[in-house]
């Protein structure tokens, strides 16, 4: 099977320089009930969740994809997608990944993906340090995880879980409710970023190898943006949100040197990562895997949206287009608030 991953990991990562990771262990496997439970916990513990920047939802061991009879796997389907292969340049624990776009089918990605090295650690506590050192020494040539917009018919054919009705508040916006699929291979990465509209981000790892996350809570983002702006002032002299333009990773050692707290997570198949509003996040895939991601909103976010309205910068891209995303006017926000009740 394409996603067969024989290595079993035990234990969670403990934070050395920031809040400890939070996991919500839920004795249920129904998607709607999982998110209802998360919403109740979010209402009670929003401050704690925001201090960490993310929460991992761990369903019961009985969780599985829906059973609809005979279905295909990703190994049987060629999906034309944009893959972002990259050359890594490093500066003292900062890894910059310039984009190069090319079309590749998922099947070919899986077939040609590099296996994990023989010295890959069996203890999950040692994995983050191993991956960061592999990047720094050139042992691992990082590339982007392959991403694509999920087609509902593809979901049905592959028997993949799709998000339905989650949290409600922002799902009616076309730009927010779009589901994205991510196909990872060993060493593929997703660079530091925050979500548009300051939305929450929900990522479910459907199958395959685990995924490593590093999260910086929103309360530290000013310091983080100052660090990146200082390091790359030649590329971005005016913008207050350099992470909107740069594709990069910052190692834990560099974050510690700059006194920026962070939290690390390991996500296993069937588990759900919820990234809090405004939190920077990045990570690695530890082998071939498939996950889906969607923005979502919570009613309490609407007040923040009303205050800030547009949270993306207005800088121009190379093609002359403005990065500014769909603005939300007062009438639209009122409609969202109504829908969230």
UniProtKB/TrEMBL annotation:
Classification via InterPro entries: JmjC_dom
Record-level GO BP terms: regulation of gene expression
Gene Ontology molecular functions: histone H3K36 demethylase activity; histone H3K9 demethylase activity
Domain of life: Eukaryota
Residues of the JmjC domain: 98-313
Pfam families associated with the record: JmjC
GO cellular-component term (any): nucleus
Protein name: JmjC domain-containing protein
